[in-house]
Amino acid sequence: MNQQFSFDYACFASASELDPADKALLEKARAITAAAYAPYSNFKVGAAAVLDDGRIVTATNQENASYPVGICAERTLLSAVSAMHANKRILTLAISYASEGKNDRPISPCGLCRQSLAEYEQRSQQPIRLLLGGQTGAVYIIPDCVSLLPLGFSGEDLNR
Ligand code: THU
Predict the structure, then answer these.
(1) How many CB atoms lie within 10 A of CB 67?
(2) Domain assignment present for 9
(3) Is the dihedral of CA 128, 133, 135, 138 positive or negative?
(4) Residue 125 is part of which domain span?
(5) Ligand 1 atom closest to Cα of residue 62
(6) Which residues pair with 11 in a beta bridge?
(7) Which tens digit of pLDDT belongs to each residue from 75-129?
(8) Residue 41 is part of a domain; what is its CATH number?
(9) What are the residue numbers of the active site?
(10) pLDDT for the residue numbered 159
(11) Strands in the chain per DSSP E
(12) Residue 158 and residue 39: Cα distance in Å, rounded?
């Protein structure tokens, strides 16, 4: 028997179509790209999350001369929230970037970040809405992160 996996996500032509809170969060992700430490790739990623107490946390990618040591903006953000705002839920996470090329379409979290985001969702029992957009252009809203990791491995698979 074949099985299928699919999920719905919303596509907007530009940030101006978003509701004001989402637009403001994406603007924060766009702006914080300027603080990224990305001297090797020059691909600056910004993340901005709203927590369940209304607080907004931002983060950027942190590269290293030993390239694999670098950390994506998403995982920098998860670590910051987990360390500084323990037990807080992340409601929405906006991700943007600024590169030397075109910055006019969304990027989506890498595989490592999908695994980390799925863990945070599971741990906090809270779907994390993703708001993905470049500096300009289309914006995607994805209702949760686990949708980006079909058939993923999780804590539930351990010690069964
Ligand atoms: N990067 C992120 O921070 N988030 C993503 O979703 C994709 C990639 C970073 C990693 C590296 O510092 C640079 O972008 C180029 O891959």
Answers:
(1) 9
(2) no
(3) negative
(4) 14-147
(5) 12
(6) 140
(7) 999 999 999 999 999 999 999 999 999 999 999 999 999 999 999 999 999 999 9
(8) 3.40.140.10
(9) 74
(10) 84
(11) 10-12, 44-51, 56-60, 90-98, 129-133, 139-142
(12) 38
